[in-house]
Amino acid sequence: MATPTMDKVEAEAAASSDLITVTFRIRRFNPEISEHAVWEDFELEIDPKERVLDGLHKIKWDLDGTLTFRRSCAHGICGSDAMRINGKNRLACKTLIKDINPEKPITVEAIKGLTVLKDLVVDMEPFFQAYRDVMPFLITKGNEPTRERRQSAEDRERFDDTTKCILCAACTTSCPVFWNDGQYFGPAAIVNAHRFIFDSRDEAGEQRLEILNDKDGVWRCRTTFNCTDACPRGIEVTKAIQEVKRALITRRY
Ligand code: SF4
Ligand code: FES
């Protein structure tokens, strides 16, 4: 015998019984109103299986349309919604409410070390400038080959981890060296340099190593592992930085 399906009213009642009341404590900043940031609390009903991004949407759509934050894909791909949630850099779209102790207020603030423009939105330009500075594209000499550039599976594996970067800046903005001196290239730029330095098809490894041999380059890293902990893609960021340091010493890569 077929199992009777729940009617709409029952389904809604079941869904609403899953809701819990959560406080979002958000660090607000609006330079048109004040030069100081303030914490503001929002209380909302939410399913704990939803994500912090869903909570931010509910606040923006139902409670305060002025709340400002970036997001695009909502699925951990575009890297635009890195923020500091309960004191740790995370992607709002990959963070479930139930995983971050919703019994207490959930704090949400902008990532650190970059200028806050409004609420949770920072000026990403210094971050992207460091990325551009390491020349994150394949550089080769000589004539274009008539067929694709071949590479063995082992050679491809050498830099597989660092191809996963989505440029969310969670690593760079969790780094105490970057907080103290925004001139440091930062983990994300080094990860993206690593991706090409260790690519057997690329011929500009020496140039990239020299760029990172700068006073603001890899030697500023203090191996605190904050970057590795923060990376939502699970990239071994500190290991990649160590490999670039080793390549600088041995000139082997
Ligand atoms: S290395 Fe990880 S944390 Fe850093 S920018 Fe790339 S994806 Fe984000
Ligand atoms: S919105 Fe794209 S990674 Fe979160």
Automatic annotation (TrEMBL):
It comes from the Bacteria. Residues 20-114 form the 2Fe-2S ferredoxin-type domain. Keywords: 2Fe-2S, 3Fe-4S, 4Fe-4S, Iron, Iron-sulfur, Metal-binding, Oxidoreductase, Tricarboxylic acid cycle. CDD domains: fer2 (cd00207). It catalyses: a quinone + succinate = fumarate + a quinol. Its cofactor is [2Fe-2S] cluster; [3Fe-4S] cluster; [4Fe-4S] cluster. Its EC number is 1.3.5.1. The keyword Plastid does not apply. One of its GO terms (molecular function) is 3 iron, 4 sulfur cluster binding. Binds 1 [2Fe-2S] cluster. The keyword Mitochondrion does not apply. Pathway: Carbohydrate metabolism; tricarboxylic acid cycle. GO terms for biological process: respiratory electron transport chain; tricarboxylic acid cycle. Residues 155-177 form the 4Fe-4S ferredoxin-type domain. NCBIfam families: dhsB, PRK05950.1. Belongs to the succinate dehydrogenase/fumarate reductase iron-sulfur protein family. This is Succinate dehydrogenase iron-sulfur subunit. It comes from Streptomyces qinzhouensis.
